[in-house]
Structures
1.
Amino acid sequence: MLVALLLSRAEVAQTPLTVAGSAFIAGIAIFSGSLYALSLTGIKWLGAIAPIGGAALILGWGCLAIAFGAP
């Protein structure tokens, strides 16, 4: 929601925020979804997918920092 609010502001870079929003959505879905599926089904290989979602979340935070010119 914060990324959507920031996108409405004209003085902030648009492309990094768009990538950040997409990465956050994908990261939450993959990370949380794989852990929920692991706990509900017991299929062990689903736990190996969680780091992909974590990497997407890190990418989202990195793009958010880039949008605001963090060093």
2.
Amino acid sequence: MLRLKDRVSIITGGSQGIGAAYVREFVAEGARVVIADVVPADKLIKKVEGLGSEPMFVKTDVTDEAAVQNMVEKTLDKFGGIDVLVNNAALWVHVPAKPILEIEKTEWDQILDVNINGTFLCTKAVVPHMQKRGYGKIINISSGRALKGQTNLLHYDTSKGAVISFTRSIARELGVDGIRANTIAPGGVMTDAVLAQDNVRNHIAMGTETRAIKREQVPDDVVGACVFLASAESDFITGQLLAVDGGSAMN
């Protein structure tokens, strides 16, 4: 049985990395997927051909309110509704690690703009349509870094901590409308972008020793949690934080 059959699902930042893994699994589980990203998804769409219905790509800058509204309108035009939003778009792989005294305000603003303002704008845009249906799933992606207190990525860690608080508050606010909101906090994942940068890969690799399951984390390790939270199986779960990091952070 397909766990996401016909569920209209928007996945931001879905063209690459963990987002692409979400797209692949959602398609395979029967979802009708919208890939919202600034990066084209032609190669990904070709890769998932035959797994299920073909995803729709909408070029979307999640920090641009007009672009986000356009994404929602195109989703509604094609599929007639919205069941699931995965707020996955974020900046981090190309963010230079540095202590607080070296972080410029422009850099701070850019990280928070994508990582938390983008989550806010996309959520705000889909909520009225979920309210009309009396049902919806919002899945926000945080990070294991936000759970442990770490150095040299204060702007990133702050944005991902804000995602957790944002999720808990909207879960309280929107539960009466049948909308569930939960957070996934992955550990450091060995995506293609990470593997292409030795310094980032080495930094993440050091965290492997903090895990109960002592191996590198790959994108497929996270997709099961996302499918679960998008499916009917988690209909009585909201406001929760699920760390998917091999047991590095234990809440």
3.
Amino acid sequence: MSITATELKMNLSKYLLLAATEDIYITRNGRTIAKLSNPYQERMDIAKSLIGILPADVTLEEAEEERASLL
């Protein structure tokens, strides 16, 4: 999403909440001057990529045992 610096000033709390889910590029005079983003986005992407790796019928204990056997 791209917004002007003036828009950011007028609605800062709104854009701080949005920054948790998407990058926000701030422009001034048509040029991008800053980027507002979630500092933990990389962690969130990694966690999302792991969803669905284990079958639904596997218990946590079984997964831990399998992991331990690989080490």
